Amino acid sequence: MLELRLVQGSLLKKVLESIKDLVNDANFDCSATGFSLQAMDSSHVALVALLLRSEGFEHYRCDRNISMGMNLGNMSKMLKCAGNDDIITIKADDGSDTGLCGFEEGFLIGDVVVEVLDQDKIADFEMKLMDIDSEHLGIPEAEYQAIVRMPSAEFARICKDLSSIGDTVVISVTKEGVKFSTQGDIGTANIVCRQNTTVDKPEEATVIEMQQPVSLTFALRYMNSFTKATPLSNTVTISLSTELPVVVEYKIAEMGYIRFYLAPKIEEDDEETKPQV
Amino acid sequence: MLELRLVQGSLLKKVLESIKDLVNDANFDCSATGFSLQAMDSSHVALVALLLRSEGFEHYRCDRNISMGMNLGNMSKMLKCAGNDDIITIKADDGSDTGLCGFEEGFLIGDVVVEVLDQDKIADFEMKLMDIDSEHLGIPEAEYQAIVRMPSAEFARICKDLSSIGDTVVISVTKEGVKFSTQGDIGTANIVCRQNTTVDKPEEATVIEMQQPVSLTFALRYMNSFTKATPLSNTVTISLSTELPVVVEYKIAEMGYIRFYLAPKIEEDDEETKPQV
Amino acid sequence: MLELRLVQGSLLKKVLESIKDLVNDANFDCSATGFSLQAMDSSHVALVALLLRSEGFEHYRCDRNISMGMNLGNMSKMLKCAGNDDIITIKADDGSDTGLCGFEEGFLIGDVVVEVLDQDKIADFEMKLMDIDSEHLGIPEAEYQAIVRMPSAEFARICKDLSSIGDTVVISVTKEGVKFSTQGDIGTANIVCRQNTTVDKPEEATVIEMQQPVSLTFALRYMNSFTKATPLSNTVTISLSTELPVVVEYKIAEMGYIRFYLAPKIEEDDEETKPQV
Question: Are C59 and C101 in contact (CB under 8 A)?
Fold first, then answer.
């Protein structure tokens, strides 16, 4: 028996919105410690990892580990039926019954029920689960050469602006700031955000932790896709190392995080000395 | 001579917006008692009936009954030129003159003039009338097994939400509440609105008058079309009987109503015992 | 060396927005007195003339006259990257260096750099200039038979409304007011704005200066395109004479203007006596 209740149902809607365009089908893994997901995008270039810890839910019961394969677009459609102030409950039964049961009587293996509770309205949505093959990648803890924390809306704006000019972004970090650059047919663009910790609100700060300067190139298409998670958090953390995929992380207050991993483009690793392609 | 004036011109705009997608061409019938319309949708499945009583107009003069055939899309385009606070006057002449006259001198049979009055702006729009064959159906007064009154925005939201999951809605009324259900490839959905009369504002109540429980199936496409009338009224009344078309009614304050009629889908009349198609 | 700085960067964004759909490529001419542009639309029917006087800029340096050929769509894309409160600097070098230099070291002939300054963010955009053939038309000062000044939003609304009914607008000016008329398949429309100078705010006035009544016909497509300049000014001035193109002018506060010129349609010059086409 699985039963999760979130008073702030809009959070679940935002989570689905932020990953459904990147990943079509994925397994949600539920255990006693929390609700998690790990999936590659359809072209196997980017990886998304989600964690919602059990303590963050108003009610969390998970008798044994289960993996629920879902089409994220369909799940998102169902969650859209919930208002932003509605309470959302997710239920799944791990019993052995094989007939299709109604909502009041019980749940099948292979079915998830989303229940939405308004003051005088109860809605329940029952969705067939899917059997999805997936291998869970171990993501090793790593030391990063540079970690940038900045306002998530600012990062989203920069990725959007640059993608009207070029296809890739070079992210270069020095002690003074982080530079986002692109180049396209119509010209070039450079946007520099200076380190700035003397701000009115902590979430407006741009903070740089740097072991050594780093400059890496990424596809803007993926960066723009990651920024769909912007509504989940006021800040974003970008962790960079020459030999590792970048990690773009949005913390989910008191519950967990959503992290996107993307490998840098190799041909532009050393753009100063190599000929451009 | 016909001359109608509405200070609250936005009301007329909303009426046109609510029916122009359902019905292309229709006759507006004007008599001493009011301004009315009755028309089938183009696939002859739904019926719309509109009444605006003469008392609701600031000025109402109709010397003899006339029927004005109009393309509702064109009429809507013309009314869109009026601001929401503008005064709208509709004029038509029933004289025998055959030449096309200007606005200042008079009007032809077969032409309707919409005049829009702002403080320092006068606009007039002259539209050719059409000759439309139509038979006026007598709609008998009927007793309904169940009548639900609920907030119109809530009903619109439910129809929109369900149509992202399925094509039809089963509306089931019991003493406790009204249930809207659908079923589609991605799963099923049930939304229950409980009877609730202890609300701050009367228009937020959900009130059920029931002779006997009823459960009927309708095409969501039409229901969604009816909800275009939502801006006309805070509440909607849904009248249901097993043998009759459902009536979805939006009252127009102090003037009349707009009513939509739709026959239930027969094959799902008794979904518990019959095999599903 | 050219260097212009505008604290109110949004103004430059609005200028580009108002002309980029009418003109694809154009030369911006910079001299000691100001920044100007004159260009025909791609079908050589309308002319746009822009002037931003040097006094209106916070910083203005132009050592010798230069002409910068730009694709206005690309320039607009780059300016969109500036926030509405950002400071925008435009730089171009008239030196003889031929290599492509970075932003910090200098600028090429044939490149323009747009620099955007936020508190903790600096962005620079470098765009290749184009070589555009253009002849500068002398526009003689003229006496107009009628000059109408009215709220720009009102004029935009009227052009938009009429274009849902017809393709051309007849603008007729008398001492009492200005009439905008159109005719289409679905009917006719006339909108009269009366002269009105007793308004709360001067920009809400409709003021008519008239030597003699005038009635001219124009393509609504172009009028609608001109009204994209509406965000630049609260009022618009329309200057009309029988033998001349109409001038639709939006003043840019304390800096200059944007003027659109359009020849009247001849076949309807004298609509009272000639047969309609």
Answer: no
Widest CA span in chain C: 68
Q: For B55-82, write each residue's pLDDT tens digit.
A: 999 999 998 888 888 899 999 988 888 8
pLDDT in tens, B179-238: 999 999 888 999 999 998 888 888 889 999 999 999 999 999 999 999 999 999 999 999
Interchain contact C161–B (C-beta under 8 A): yes
Where are chain B's structural domains?
Answer: 2-128, 146-262
Q: Are C248 and C230 spatial neighbours (Cβ–Cβ below 8 Å)?
A: no
pLDDT band at C21 (very low <50, low <70, confident <90, very high): very high
Put simply, the answer to whether B161 touches A80 (Cβ < 8 Å) is yes
Q: Is C25 in the A-facing interface, judged by CB distances under 8 Å?
A: no
By percentage, how much of chain A surpasses pLDDT 70?
89
Residue written as tokens 């008079």?
A: B106
CB-closest option in B77, B123, B127 to C190: B123
Cα distance between residue A227 and residue A161, in whole Å? 13
CATH number of B2-128: 3.70.10.10
Q: Tell me the ipTM for this assembly.
A: 0.83
Q: Supply the pLDDT for residue A196.
A: 86
- The shortest C-alpha distance from B72 to chain C (Å) reads 11
Residue from A179, A186, A194, A195 whose CB has the most chain C CBs within 10 Å, to mutate = A186
What CATH number is given for B146-262 in this structure?
A: 3.70.10.10
- Tell which wins on pLDDT, A84 or B41: B41
Where residue C47 falls among pLDDT bands split at 50, 70, 90? very high
- In the stretch 49-88 of chain B, residues with CB closer than 8 A to chain C read 71, 74, 77-78, 80-81
List the single residue in C187, C193, C196 with the smallest CB-CB distance to B125.
C187
Name the residue facing B120 among C165, C188, C193 (closest C-beta).
C193
Are the beta carbons of B123 and C187 separated by less than 8 Å? no
Alpha carbon of residue C153 to chain centroid: 15
A193 to chain C: which residues are within 8 Å by CB? 120-121
Report d(CA C214, CA C264) in Å as an integer.
12
Residue A73 has pLDDT above 80, yes or no: yes
CB contact under 8 A, A124 and B154: no
In the predicted model, what is the mean pLDDT of residues B40-47?
91
Asked whether this chain's domains B2-128 and B146-262 adopt the same fold, the reply is: yes
Whether A186 has its CB under 8 Å from any CB of chain C: the answer is yes
Contacts with C192 from chain B: Cβ below 8 Å: 121-123
**Encoding tokens for residue A245?**
């995929």
| Percentage of residues of chain C with pLDDT beyond 70 | 89
- Residue owning tokens 């119509």: A186
pTM reported for the whole predicted model:
0.86
B153 CB within 8 Å of a chain A CB: no
A2, with CB counted inside 10 A (0-12, 13-18, 19+), is buried
Task: Report the C-alpha gap between C182 and C161 in whole angstroms.
Answer: 10
Q: What is the pLDDT of residue C56?
A: 94
Chain C residues with CB under 8 Å of A162 CB are 81
DSSP one-letter code for A182: E
